[in-house]
Design goal:
It is found in: Lysosome membrane. This protein is mainly alpha-helical. Helix content is about 80%, strand content about 0%. It has 2 domains: about 250 residues, MFS general substrate transporter like domains (Growth Hormone, Chain: A), CATH 1.20.1250; about 210 residues, Growth Hormone, Chain: A, CATH 1.20.1250.20.
């Protein structure tokens, strides 16, 4: 969230902590062991980045194995998309309480371990459901997995805020997002190969081979759980050496604040839901789409379906820096939405090489994330940020759950062309909302669409007035 550096006293501040961190029993401490030293914090950052790797790797296991899941379990597409809906359902509520649980109930260290356990156990239940050919058990596993997945992302950001100064924070968030997309990309391109190797060992395809493949994927969740345990140890050690408090999210959630949200924030919510429901459900169904429409091999289909995540990994930090330097957030959101609509229309109505459309989709997806989410901090006061972001994530997950089920039903009954038209309609709703946002913001003074220089000047004037 915005203004993290103003909410927490970040690691390395103050002479007392620094001097304490450099001495142990009167002897100088090695740099890699010194919590106040950059080298040690880079090691911590490495564990932070891998903390969410397993969650993002396993989230799209169904998409990477779409053909195998449908065939081995004898499902239709609507039932298949329930696996994504059941991930989103718990987060319709938990987005409000994830920060509260970390701050007031568990603490950041224990909370991160608990959420990592939910992710790990959920993936194991998911795999066990496939092994015994009980789809309801797979749905239960995705529900448990979802309880941990989104809250673990909150914990990951909290660790970042607690360990890194303000000038480093944007880079750290960018690196964490990049590693998340690496997890998604590796999943898309490796799970089909894992399944084929398991089939060779088992002797034939089927639910047993599918369950074993998903169980192998659970190893990445176990790896992330180990990272959570190491992070807890390192954070506890730093707390003792530097005499700092345990990190908190800074989120104060008050549902009564919802009635005070301005119209600009509600338009941002509409853009968020209308846009993301045309991205994640499409990727969840994309593999078979590229096989059927473009005659791609399964390996080629997995590769082109993962290009959105491949591009997002390096592009997110770069595009985030560009938006920081230029401002004009609303204009960038309009550009991202228009390009996304163009990409979906190419996929729907042409037979052009889908690498073009998917590459455009990857850049647009990264640009929108960099420009849209920070706008929330421009339209609500700081004490309402936790509620605003929680509500935004909540309705996003509600939209994803409903649209995932709708997309599966549309595909079963009408085919891919109607499904793509449906996704284009969702993008058009987001486009209308962002154009309306532009005019409403203009009439209210243009706070959301100011240039970076204008924002810096206003902030300087406000600081001078406060002094």
């Amino acid at each position: 969230m915005a203004d993290y550096e103003e909410r927490r006293s970040l690691l390395g501040d103050g002479d007392e902590g620094s001097s304490a961190g450099r001495r142990t029993a009167g002897r100088p401490m090695w740099a890699i062991c010194d919590p106040s030293h950059l080298l040690h914090r880079v090691v911590v950052l490495l564990f932070m980045c891998f903390l969410g790797f397993g969650s993002y790797f396993c989230y799209d296991n169904p998409a990477a194995l779409q053909t195998q899941v449908i065939q081995d379990l004898n499902l239709n597409t609507a039932k298949f998309m329930q696996l994504y809906a059941w991930y989103s359902w718990p987060n319709v509520v938990l987005c409000f309480f994830g920060g509260f649980l970390l701050d007031r109930v568990f603490g950041i260290r224990l909370g991160t371990i608990i959420f990592s356990l939910f992710v790990c156990v959920g993936q194991v239940i998911f795999a066990a459901g496939a092994l015994v050919n009980h789809f309801w058990l797979m749905e239960a596993g995705r529900f448990v997995f979802g309880i941990g997945g989104e809250s673990l992302a909150v914990a990951q950001n909290t660790y970042a805020v607690n360990w890194f100064k303000g000038k480093e924070l944007n880079l750290v968030f960018g690196l964490q997002l990049s590693m998340a997309r690496v997890g998604s990309t590796v999943n898309m391109n490796i799970m089909g190969w894992v399944y084929s190797k398991v089939v060779d060992l088992v002797g034939s395809p089927g639910h047993t081979a599918l369950g074993a493949s998903l169980l192998i994927a659970a190893v990445t969740c176990l790896f992330s759980l180990i990272c959570a345990l190491v992070l807890a140890f390192l954070d506890k050690r730093a707390e003792k050496i530097l005499h700092k408090e345990e990190g908190k999210t800074g989120e104060v959630v008050k549902l009564t604040d919802v009635k005070d949200f301005p119209i600009t924030l509600w338009l941002i919510f509409i853009i968020c839901v209308g846009y993301y429901v045309a991205i994640f459900p499409f990727i969840g169904l994309g593999q078979v789409f590229f096989i059927e429409k473009f005659n791609f091999s399964p390996a080629e289909a997995r590769a082109v379906n993962s290009i959105v995540y491949i591009i997002s990994a390096p592009a997110s930090p770069v595009l985030g820096l560009m938006v920081d330097k230029t401002g004009r957030n609303v204009v960038w959101v309009i550009i991202a939405v228009v390009f996304t609509l163009a990409a979906h229309m190419m996929l729907a109505f042409t037979f052009w090489n889908p690498w073009i459309a998917m590459s455009l989709l990857g850049v647009s997806y990264s640009l929108l994330a960099c420009a849209l989410w920070p706008m929330v901090a421009f339209v609500v006061p700081e004490h309402q940020l936790g509620t605003a972001y929680g509500f935004m994530q909540s309705i996003q997950n509600l939209g994803l759950a409903l649209i995932a089920m709708a997309a599966g039903s549309i595909l079963d009954n009408r085919g891919y062309l109607v499904l793509e038209v449906f996704f284009c309609t969702c993008i058009c709703i987001a486009l209308m909302a962002v154009v309306l946002l532009y005019f409403v913001d203009y009439l209210r003074g243009g706070d959301l669409n100011r240039s970076a220089a204008a924002r810096a000047k206003l902030q300087k004037e406000a600081t001078s007035a406060a002094e």
